[in-house]
Amino acid sequence: MKKYLLVFAFFISSLSGVYSLETKFQLGFSPSLMLNTDTSLNSAVSPIVTPINFAINLKIKENFCIEPRLSFFYYYSLWANNRALPAEIENRTGTTFSFMLDCPFDFTKTFNKNHIFQIGAGPSFLIRFATLSNNVNADDYGVTGSAQGDLSCINSWFWQNANFLFIKAHALYLYKFNSSVQAGPEFSVSLPIGSFIENNPLHNALISAGIQFRF
User: What is the pTM of this model?
Assistant: First the structure.
């Protein structure tokens, strides 16, 4: 995990050095629906996760910018039907900690000096790792024979068939309150490449609506 965060930090610092004249910092909260298309009775209905995100907006040209972003959220998981699935708290095996790294290329336009519209798309990397949830013991029952065995399968699945790779598209509106502070709603969709490979295109997709603050 540490090496991925270091690479992301180095990437951001490198871009900031190149485009430091037009750098803005951004903080946001974006509740997201994580689609679960599995019909297993063991898994949860599509859960709502609550990512908190931090971004740097880097203007590279008039009306164009790059916006590296890091989001964090967690949810409960179980192992069923040869895949990691979201779980209800009563039926969980692992607690999955998730870090999403985005790097969209955006088009932005300002109207009447105070109204900013921004749309863009780009790759996202969802780095996940699961640990045994509270009150779940390693030798408890699991599909593989034990909860610890299920946990190992869950963590392996996160890296199989590009399950960590997403394509994200988003639209953002910001109102400029003053020379320093902007805020407004954002809508986004993250499509998982791994689910397309497995012929289940929308499984694990994230649909988000939230608010962003830019400084």
Answer: 0.86
Distance of CA 108 to the CA centre of its chain: 22
Mean pLDDT, range 47-64, rounded to an integer: 93
Neighbours of 178 (CB within 10 A): 7
Q: Quick check: helix, strand or coil at residue 146? A: coil
Residue type at 198? E
d(CA 28, CA 19): 22
d(CA 122, CA 47): 24
Specify which residues 130 forms β-bridges with: 96
Q: Are 50 and 98 within 8 A, CB to CB?
A: no
Closest Cα partner for 49 from 25, 77, 80, 69? 77
User: Which whole-number Å values give the CA distances from 148 to 101, 129, 139, 155, 160, in the listed order?
Assistant: 28, 14, 7, 11, 19
Distance CA 61, CA 174 (A): 19
- Tens digits of per-residue pLDDT, 114-124? 999 999 999 99
